[in-house]
């Protein structure tokens, strides 16, 4: 789920920013561009731990931008297919419910909820509950889910609670 990785990035700096405070400019711009984004292979970049320029900058012919090769160490959030995770229910409707798992929003459709749990719109707040009401899923409930589809570019996924040891 969370990993500490060493990654590379090419940072473009506008010519007007090439001045006496270049190091601070590089650090600020790098953190703005990288933290809170999604890496195509490794997932959501939670935080940059350390960064360093690992070579000489090159100048782009067409724009005049300086491109600095950066190597950085980061904490990344990555969910694998069929991974079991814990999250907090954010929204509930007849179609299912949405669970927040860190920055990932995961949808659990009603067909992926055990058959004995039914949607109760008259409950305050609306919920999915078992016939004896021993299990109740409502906004704010902590649930364990099995993620079977993940799109980390959009930070969304789909999951089930219809297996043993899943749910509330």
UniProtKB/TrEMBL annotation:
<dbReference type="GO" id="GO:0003697">
    <property type="term" value="F:single-stranded DNA binding"/>
</dbReference>
<dbReference type="GO" id="GO:0045948">
    <property type="term" value="P:positive regulation of translational initiation"/>
</dbReference>
<dbReference type="Pfam" id="PF03876">
    <property type="entry name" value="SHS2_Rpb7-N"/>
</dbReference>
<dbReference type="GO" id="GO:0006367">
    <property type="term" value="P:transcription initiation at RNA polymerase II promoter"/>
</dbReference>
<keyword id="KW-0240">DNA-directed RNA polymerase</keyword>
<protein>
    <submittedName>
        <fullName>DNA-directed RNA polymerase ii subunit rpb7</fullName>
    </submittedName>
</protein>
<keyword id="KW-0539">Nucleus</keyword>
<feature type="domain" description="S1 motif">
    <location>
        <begin position="82"/>
        <end position="164"/>
    </location>
</feature>
<comment type="similarity">
    <text>Belongs to the eukaryotic RPB7/RPC8 RNA polymerase subunit family.</text>
</comment>
<dbReference type="InterPro" id="IPR045113">
    <property type="entry name" value="Rpb7-like"/>
</dbReference>
<dbReference type="GO" id="GO:0005665">
    <property type="term" value="C:RNA polymerase II, core complex"/>
</dbReference>
<dbReference type="GO" id="GO:0060213">
    <property type="term" value="P:positive regulation of nuclear-transcribed mRNA poly(A) tail shortening"/>
</dbReference>
<keyword id="KW-0804">Transcription</keyword>
<dbReference type="GO" id="GO:0003727">
    <property type="term" value="F:single-stranded RNA binding"/>
</dbReference>
<dbReference type="GO" id="GO:0000932">
    <property type="term" value="C:P-body"/>
</dbReference>
<dbReference type="Pfam" id="PF00575">
    <property type="entry name" value="S1"/>
</dbReference>
<dbReference type="InterPro" id="IPR005576">
    <property type="entry name" value="Rpb7-like_N"/>
</dbReference>
<dbReference type="InterPro" id="IPR003029">
    <property type="entry name" value="S1_domain"/>
</dbReference>
<dbReference type="GO" id="GO:0031369">
    <property type="term" value="F:translation initiation factor binding"/>
</dbReference>
<dbReference type="InterPro" id="IPR012340">
    <property type="entry name" value="NA-bd_OB-fold"/>
</dbReference>
<dbReference type="InterPro" id="IPR036898">
    <property type="entry name" value="RNA_pol_Rpb7-like_N_sf"/>
</dbReference>
């Amino acid at each position: 789920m969370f990993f500490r990785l060493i990654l590379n990035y090419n940072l473009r700096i506008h010519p007007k920013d090439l001045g006496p405070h270049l190091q601070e400019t590089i650090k600020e711009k790098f953190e703005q561009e990288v933290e809170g984004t999604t890496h195509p292979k490794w997932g959501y970049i939670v935080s940059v731990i350390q960064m360093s320029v690992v070579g000489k900058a090159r100048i782009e012919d067409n724009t005049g931008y300086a491109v600095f090769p950066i190597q950085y160490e980061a904490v990344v959030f990555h969910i694998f297919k069929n991974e079991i995770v814990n999250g907090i229910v954010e929204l509930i409707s007849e179609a299912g419910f949405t669970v927040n798992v860190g920055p990932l929003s995961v949808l659990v459709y009603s067909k992926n909820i055990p058959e004995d749990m039914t949607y109760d719109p008259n409950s305050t707040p609306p919920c999915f509950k078992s016939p004896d009401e021993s299990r109740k899923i409502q906004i704010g409930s902590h649930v364990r889910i099995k993620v079977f589809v993940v799109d980390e570019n959009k930070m969304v996924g789909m999951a089930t609670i219809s297996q043993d040891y899943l749910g509330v």
